[in-house]
Amino acid sequence: MRRKLAAGNWKMNGTAASLAELEALKALMPENAPDVLICPPAPLLFRANEAARATGIQIGAQDCHAQNSGAFTGDISAAMIADTGASHVIVGHSERREAYEEHDSDVRKKAKAAWAAGLTAVICIGESADNHSANNTLDIIAGQLAGSLPDGMTATNTVIAYEPIWAIGTGKVPTLEQIVEVHDFIRGKIISRFGAEIGDMIPLLYGGSVKPDNAAMIFKAENVDGALVGGASLKAADFAPIISALADS
Ligand SMILES: O=C[C@H](O)COP(=O)(O)O
């Protein structure tokens, strides 16, 4: 049985005071809560791990460099992230792909760096609005999967997040049929490349405007094992109902 994961990506939001949300979230989470992951900005990682210790909430980073160390001003390595006590790192988020011109080959290297540091890589893929309108979604997804997933993926070192770029922060959400189509397609692709023992066990997350009022609809899809949530993960009161909807799915 695949594990369910509710992941929150705080993006460039929050200060130390925001870590109070972790305890608030724990208090609101159902007893049968799935795995919960919060990815705060890098300066909060150490303190977030401290604050999350008694809650069972896991902590992850939002990006890492592909190298372990070196002259890369402003960057952080997967080893440094692991040193904070974090368990996951997001790689290939569309905001990084767009703003920093990260390509599939960069994402692949970062995922391997994450594994080498003992972290689970949350590898993001997703098509642009133009590709969506041109009905190119599955071709784009196939290319991103082929390019971004390194050989060596196991049932436990990777989570894949499908985030249509046009749905991120826009309030637009694909229909359940569209979500089912893309997630079934991803499942089929990873099974055919990595075999059923691995491909069947990798959690697939949906991301893009997941809110308390649409989460139950999204989690109806058989191959949606959770969500990567941006805006609605910042406040425990918004994220907790999403976690409950996942627990009940
Ligand atoms: O990483 C999270 C996604 O980009 C989704 O963001 P959003 O929930 O604010 O649309």
From TrEMBL:
InterPro entries, A to Z: Aldolase_TIM (IPR013785), TIM_sf (IPR035990), TrioseP_Isoase_bac/euk (IPR022896), Triosephosphate_isomerase (IPR000652), Triosephosphate_isomerase_AS (IPR020861)
> Active site: which residues?
93 (electrophile), 163 (proton acceptor)
GO cellular component terms, alphabetically, are: cytosol
Pathway connected to this protein: Carbohydrate metabolism; erythritol degradation; Carbohydrate degradation; glycolysis; D-glyceraldehyde 3-phosphate from glycerone phosphate: step 1/1; Carbohydrate biosynthesis; gluconeogenesis
- Where is this protein chiefly located? cytoplasm
Any one of the GO BP annotations: glycerol catabolic process
Q: Which reaction does it catalyse?
A: D-glyceraldehyde 3-phosphate = dihydroxyacetone phosphate; L-erythrulose 1-phosphate = D-erythrulose 4-phosphate
**Pfam families from the UniProt entry:** TIM
Coiled-coil positions are none
Spans traversing the lipid bilayer: none
Localization terms from the record: Cytoplasm
Report a single Gene Ontology molecular function: triose-phosphate isomerase activity
Q: What class of enzyme is it?
A: isomerase
Tell me the residue numbers annotated for binding substrate.
9-11, 169, 209, 230-231
Q: Which PROSITE patterns match?
A: TIM_1, TIM_2
SUPFAM superfamilies to which the protein is assigned, alphabetical = Triosephosphate isomerase (TIM)
User: Its function?
Assistant: Involved in the gluconeogenesis. Catalyzes stereospecifically the conversion of dihydroxyacetone phosphate (DHAP) to D-glyceraldehyde-3-phosphate (G3P).
Q: Give the multimer and partner information.
A: Homodimer.
**Sequence similarity:** Belongs to the triosephosphate isomerase family.
Q: Which HAMAP family match?
A: TIM_B (MF_00147_B)
What is the name of the protein in this document? Answer: Triosephosphate isomerase
The organism's taxonomic lineage, starting at the top: Bacteria, Pseudomonadati, Pseudomonadota, Alphaproteobacteria, Rhodobacterales
